[in-house]
């Protein structure tokens, strides 16, 4: 995937947008230190070390398009998650304080549109089988379960030409 043409900004709504990742923020570090979030993502409550967090985000940024999800809070936009398009796979993290507010849905919709622009015909997501909120999010956007192994559900969605 050629990340040179990655947009700096993707508008999702008046109160929500995606901003191209540039440097690792303290907010992003805090998400990886949240045991409940780690359980949803990895199936264990072990938090990432600083080096693991840096490596995780560096890998996403180097191999695809990585964005911070920002939400309007008062007069200022604040980071509330991150979302990445790596080849034909979406990865998303939403700060637990902002979950169940359709932020993840809007961010994934934005990347589905981006994938269409890039000519990617299908997008995949992997979700832990106990992460029912993420499963519902992806299914509501048209993702279908194609495999389940080792507590991980793999889902696929066709992108829609415009």
UniProtKB/TrEMBL annotation:
Domain of life: Bacteria
A molecular function GO annotation: acyltransferase activity, transferring groups other than amino-acyl groups
InterPro entries membership: Acyl_CoA_acyltransferase (IPR016181), GNAT_dom (IPR000182)
Transmembrane segments: none
N-acetyltransferase domain span: 26-162
Gene3D superfamilies given in the database record: 3.40.630.30
Official protein name in the record: GNAT family N-acetyltransferase
């Amino acid at each position: 995937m050629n990340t040179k043409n990655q947009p700096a900004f993707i508008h999702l709504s008046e109160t929500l947008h995606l901003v191209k990742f540039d440097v690792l923020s303290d907010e992003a570090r805090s998400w990886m230190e949240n045991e409940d979030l780690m359980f949803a993502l990895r199936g264990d409550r072990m938090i990432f070390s600083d080096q693991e967090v840096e490596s995780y985000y560096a890998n996403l940024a180097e191999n695809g398009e990585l964005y911070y999800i920002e939400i309007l809070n008062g007069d200022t936009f604040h980071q509330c998650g991150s979302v990445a398009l790596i080849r034909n796979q979406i990865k998303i993290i939403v700060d637990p304080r902002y979950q169940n507010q359709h932020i993840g849905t809007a961010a994934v919709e934005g990347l589905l549109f981006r994938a269409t622009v890039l000519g990617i015909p299908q997008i995949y997501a992997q979700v832990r089988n106990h992460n029912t909120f993420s499963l519902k999010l992806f299914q509501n956007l048209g993702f279908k379960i194609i495999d389940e192994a080792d507590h991980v559900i793999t889902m696929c969605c066709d992108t829609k030409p415009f």
